[in-house]
Amino acid sequence: MTKTMYQLGVMDLYPIAANKTKIENNPFFQAKMKESVDAERLYAAVKQSLCEHPLFACTLRYKKGYYLETNENDFILIRADEESRPLAFGDATNGFLWQMCYDEYNISFEWCHAISDGRGAFAFFSSVLCHYFGADRLVEPALELGLEHFYNKAEKGIPQKKQERGFATNALPIIKRGYRTDCHILKAPMSEVLTAAKKNDSSPAAVLPPLVSMALRKHMKPKVKNKNVSCNVVVDCRVPMDFQTMHNCIISKNITYVDRYDRMDFAHVSTIYRAILDLAVQPENIVKAATETIDMLRPIVSVKPRFLQKALAKVVAGVTKHSESNFTFTYLGKMDLPDEVMSGLADFNFRSWTDFGECNVAAIDFGGTLVLNICENYQDKRIIPDLIDICRTVGINFETVDVLTYEQANLRLKI
Questions:
Q1: Which residues contact 111 (CB under 8 A, 6 or more apart)?
Q2: 200: how many CB neighbours lie within 10 A of its CB?
Q3: Which of 216, 234, 280, 306 could form a disulfide with 330, with the two C-beta atoms 3.0–4.6 Å apart?
């Protein structure tokens, strides 16, 4: 095997610095099959996909700085259901920065963000599913770094209204339990989500965050003065910038629900969120946000020696855990997969632990159904039922599919 070295950008290095901190984040995909999983077919599909997505075929190395290098070890697939799957990968997966588990009908995939973001990981997992079902999928490796491609200190961007600060942690008491969380799996017709915004070209990112904010506000302590709810919306830069990369290529946009929104028609509130997001994804503002993100993270990820970087990262994580935002919303979009694949899938889940705040709402459009995985650690367990009731008032009829305890698996790699 020919070993190749791959440079890492700041958004690739940031998850390495965040490893073992309060904001370590390793998302989870799960595909439910209509027929029993064939382990041999799955192995062949992963092997072929690793050739097409070389970053996932790597391990992490360090020499004057972190980088990825082609892993000479064989990858392994783990026969285990979600509850019994290993909670550490890296050393346990022959150096690969991901793990894939399967049982009779489910295939799950978890990865460290040092390889790629959700869109890049979904591209890899999609390739696995395509090869598993024998569907053609053309993949051309795009290995240029992500946000570094847009870096430009001269870009001032289009002016955006500064968002107000969200509520303090003590406004909603939480449960502290490490990397465990309660996960609520909800489903609703995608058409109802778009109708609620009264715009067919709207997005769940403009509809769901204000509704979640309403539910959180309803359960705050009566004496709380600041009931603003700040949502960190994950933004993929690839489409608006017409740029492809397998590396991390995301920024985030904070949008705050404030008191005056309670007096507005919901469609108007959704329009405000949509307008804020539309402005955030203008090329000038993406360049500005990418530049600011690099300038903010570079001093952290470039600290030497490594033990000082780890010490600094723990301090930063402790501060940003509850100050960056009150909750995160991430939407992967529509599963754009061939008919051969979609006809073989019964369900799909995408979830992410609460790295910032105490709630993470992860969404995907699976065959016209919006699937939400809401991970939260609030003491008050009426919040999500009330969210469902609030959604119903605007015409979105969510069904609760499951409520379970979810624990994030983490990268544990000695280098």
A1: 26, 27, 56, 97, 98, 99, 121
A2: 8
A3: 234
Q: Say what the pLDDT of residue 141 is.
A: 86
Which residue has 């950008």 as its token pair? 9
For 64, residues 6+ apart whose C-beta sits below 8 A from its C-beta are none
Short-list 205, 168, 219, 231, CA closest to 390: 219
Nearest of 345, 368, 406 to residue 128 by alpha carbon: 345
Residue 139: the pLDDT is 84
DSSP 138-160: ------S-SGGGG--TT------
- Cβ distance 141 to 287 under 8 Å? no
Residue 410 in 3-state DSSP?
Answer: strand
The Cα 358–Cα 18 span in angstroms is 17
> Where residue 1 falls among pLDDT bands split at 50, 70, 90?
low
With CA atoms as reference, report the closest residue to 277 among 163, 373, 193: 163
Tokens of 118: 């959700």
> Which ranges of 190-256 would DSSP assign to H, the alpha helix?
190-196, 204-218, 238-241
Whole-number Å distance between alpha carbons of 208 and 231: 10
Q: Say if strands 28-33 and 88-90 run parallel, antiparallel, or are unpaired.
A: unpaired
**pLDDT, position 251:** 97
User: Residue 192 and residue 158: Cα distance in Å, rounded?
Assistant: 33
